[in-house]
Amino acid sequence: xxxxxxxxxxxxxxxxxxxxxxxxxxxxxxxxxxxxxxxxxxxxxxxxxxxxxxxxxxxxxxxxxxxxxxxxxxxxxxxxxxxxxxxxxxxxxxxxxxxxxxxxxxxxxxxxxxxxxxxxxxxxxxxxxxxxxxxxxx
Length: 138
Known about the structure:
Elements: H1 2-18, E1 28-36, E2 42-50, H2 59-68, H3 70-81, E3 88-93, H4 96-108, E4 115-118, E5 124-127, H5 134-137
Parallel strand pairs: 2-3
Antiparallel strand pairs: 1-2, 4-5
Helix pairs in contact: 1-3
């Protein structure tokens, strides 16, 4: 299964790299993974889209462009791999890279540490931000 997944990923990646799809909705896309069903009837293709500049294609537009070219792409996979039956391709946006970048941003700029203060009755209270003295707030 892993070999089939990798072979499908390579074929689709080559098609994108060579610019064989002329759909203007398809931006700078990378095939990050393929998950094929056990019976090889379906394959989920994970696509990562890099946005470069303000006029870059939105990830949703790229997925829509790939979905509209699914017949061409399935034909290419069938020709290249010579499988008995070509899996039906389903394209999904891979948000792993976006999540990793958000986590990295949080790690680079962590929130301020919580500060423990006491209430009027002496009960400990944890505040999210450092307490500002009353005279400094004015």
